[in-house]
Structure formats: structure tokens, C-alpha cells
């Protein structure tokens, strides 16, 4: 009888243990310890290698499946962009923009649970072939003009042909008003050598009715103007150059730009991806993107 009592007690203990684990997991608490902050092992143009200390299971029983680690860029409170994952404790990323600032964290997960994200490691990736300097010339972000100066610097080891360079300043046309006059007030290399163009991306049209159908398109009713007035529309102002070559370390010098709506109504710059508050100082602005021969060499609007 004693052996039978011990066996019964053991079964009850095991069941209670499983229930306790189930309750612990059910309350949505992490089942894995927080991994260590990412440590930069190598930082080269277009190549960033990170390592971190591993996670372990909290309590018993431990999961049998391998733990997967995800490298993420922190975009805001509880908002992350996944950059890559591995079951190892190191990873080389090859799709980050050179010369750009990232707030990197590590998250761990497995079929039986997850971890809290690691503390943030701020990283500026190694510069590529060029970068963009930025000086906000307008201390009011809500008046009727966008005013800033930009300059391109050759951060590579060889000559940089400006004819292969494309710079994009990313903004949002709030209110759906995509009217914008693009002005170059002054440039060290001459405004006549700085080409300016604008691109914007209105939301897609509502789906059409099926062929032969008399039903109205969905959603219904459709607006008489599309997109509906007030819809914010993303876009950019693009700069390209009419030739010129920069030696390593050389710069275009300042390019002073000023843009306004044709009706001179106010513009709110604070929702523009490339906008930075005025400080009176030049700074690298990695929310402005720069491509050379179609390859991203600086800037990431989703860093």
C-alpha cells in the first residue's frame, strides 16, 4: 500500500507541476530569459556582424526545440523591424544601409515560449561610397516652406561620379495636397547642375466591379475625388546631378533648397521621414537616402 500511495502522490505532483507550468505560460509571461544586447563583432560597408549571450528556459521543464534569435531594429515603443534570425548566437547582416543609425535588439523565441527583447545597442553602420550632410534652415516646421541645405561627401576610396548619385528627401504630403514647387536657392557647385524632381504614391484605387456586373465598386459609395481629401500621401524630392567627380573625402559643398506649395499654404514637416528639428549644426541624416548606380550607399527610412 505504501508503494501505491507514493506512486499516486507522484502522479498528483506531476499533474500539479504541469498545471503550474501551463498557468505560468498562460499568463503571457516570457518562458525564456532575455538574451544579451547585441555586440558588434565586425562593421564594414554592407556587412555588420553581431553576437550576443544566449537565452535559457525559465524553470522546468525546458523546451526540447532549439531557441531562435531574431535581430530587430527598434522603431519606437514596442515597435520593431525584423532584420534576420538564426539559432546560433551570432549573425551577419548584409542588407543594412551603410552609414546609417540603427537601434538594434535581440529577441528569442521557440515553440514553447519567447523572451523579452534585449536592451538596445545603438549602431551606425560603416560608411559606404558616399553620405549626405543635412542642415535644417527653418526653425518652424509648420510654416509655408521647407528649407534645408544638403551636401554629398565621397566617403569611399575612389573617385565618385556625381552623375551616378541619387539623393532622396522623404516626406509626407499631409492633406493629400501634392502641390510642391522645388527651388534651389544656391549651391556651391551651381544650381544649374542640381536636377530636382518629385515623386508621390497615392493609395490604390478601390477595386473595380467584376466584368458584366452592375454592382458599384467596393467600398461603396466611392468618393467623388480620389484619394479622399485629407489622405496623407508619402513621397520624396529627388536630387540628381549633371556630372562632376568628387575625389575621396571631397564634397559638393552646400546645396540650399527651398520648397513650397503653389498656393503657399502651410506645410507640417514633422511627419516627414527625413525631417530633423533645426539645431544650427550640420549632421549626417541617415533618413535621407543616397544611391550610387542604383545601390544604396547611405540612409534607411525604416531604421
Write a brief caption for the model.
With 303 residues, the protein is mostly beta strands. Helices cover 8% and strands 40% of the residues.
Write the layout of secondary structure elements.
Layout lengths: L1 H25 L12 E6 L2 E5 L16 E9 L2 E8 L3 E4 L7 E10 L2 E2 L6 E4 L5 E7 L9 E9 L5 E2 L3 E11 L5 E7 L6 E7 L29 E12 L3 E2 L8 E6 L22 E2 L4 E4 L2 E4 L5
Antiparallel strand pairs: 1-2, 2-5, 3-4, 3-6, 6-7, 6-8, 9-10, 9-18, 10-17, 11-16, 12-15, 12-19, 13-17, 14-15, 19-20
Which structural traits does this protein have?
303 residues, mainly beta, Immunoglobulin-like, 2 domains, five-stranded antiparallel sheet, 8% helix, globular, disordered N terminus
3D structure, described in words:
It contains one helix and 20 strands. The strands form five sheets. Strands 3, 4, 6, 7 and 8 form a five-stranded antiparallel beta sheet that branches. A five-stranded antiparallel beta sheet has the order 13-17-10-9-18, with no helix packed on it. The chain has a five-stranded antiparallel beta sheet with strand order 14-15-12-19-20, with no helix packed on it. Mean pLDDT is 87; it is low at 1-26. It has 303 residues and is mainly beta. The protein is 8% helix and 40% strand. It has one helix at residues 2-26, and strands at residues 39-44, 47-51, 68-76, 79-86, 90-93, 101-110, 113-114, 121-124, 130-136, 146-154, 160-161, 165-175, 181-187, 194-200, 230-241, 245-246, 255-260, 283-284, 289-292, 295-298.
Amino acid at each position: 500500500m505504501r508503494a501505491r500511495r507514493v506512486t499516486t502522490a507522484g502522479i498528483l505532483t506531476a499533474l500539479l507541476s504541469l498545471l503550474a507550468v501551463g498557468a505560468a505560460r498562460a499568463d503571457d509571461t516570457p518562458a525564456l530569459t532575455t538574451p544579451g544586447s547585441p555586440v558588434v563583432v565586425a562593421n564594414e560597408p554592407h556587412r555588420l556582424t553581431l553576437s550576443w549571450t544566449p537565452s535559457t528556459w525559465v524553470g522546468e521543464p525546458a523546451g526540447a526545440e532549439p531557441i531562435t534569435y531574431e535581430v530587430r531594429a527598434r522603431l519606437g515603443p514596442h515597435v520593431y523591424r525584423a532584420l534576420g534570425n538564426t539559432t546560433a548566437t551570432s549573425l551577419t547582416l548584409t542588407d543594412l544601409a551603410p552609414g546609417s543609425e540603427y537601434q538594434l535588439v535581440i529577441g528569442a523565441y521557440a515553440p514553447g515560449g519567447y523572451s523579452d527583447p534585449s536592451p538596445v545597442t545603438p549602431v551606425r553602420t560603416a560608411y559606404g561610397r558616399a553620405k549626405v550632410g543635412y542642415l535644417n534652415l527653418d526653425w518652424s516646421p509648420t510654416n509655408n516652406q521647407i528649407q534645408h541645405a544638403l551636401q554629398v561627401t565621397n566617403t569611399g576610396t575612389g573617385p565618385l561620379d556625381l552623375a551616378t548619385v541619387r539623393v532622396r528627401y522623404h516626406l509626407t504630403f499631409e492633406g493629400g495636397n501634392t502641390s510642391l514647387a522645388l527651388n534651389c536657392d544656391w549651391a556651391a557647385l551651381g544650381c544649374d547642375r542640381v536636377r530636382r524632381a518629385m515623386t508621390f504614391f497615392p493609395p490604390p484605387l478601390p477595386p473595380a466591379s467584376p466584368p458584366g456586373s452592375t454592382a458599384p465598386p467596393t467600398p461603396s459609395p466611392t468618393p467623388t475625388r480620389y484619394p479622399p481629401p485629407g489622405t496623407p500621401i508619402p513621397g520624396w524630392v529627388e536630387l540628381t546631378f549633371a556630372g562632376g567627380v568628387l575625389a575621396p573625402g571631397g564634397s559638393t559643398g552646400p546645396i540650399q533648397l527651398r520648397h513650397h506649395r503653389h498656393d503657399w499654404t502651410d506645410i507640417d514637416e514633422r511627419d516627414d521621414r527625413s525631417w530633423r528639428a533645426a539645431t544650427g549644426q550640420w549632421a549626417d541624416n541617415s533618413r535621407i537616402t543616397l544611391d550610387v548606380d542604383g545601390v544604396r550607399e547611405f540612409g534607411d527610412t525604416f531604421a
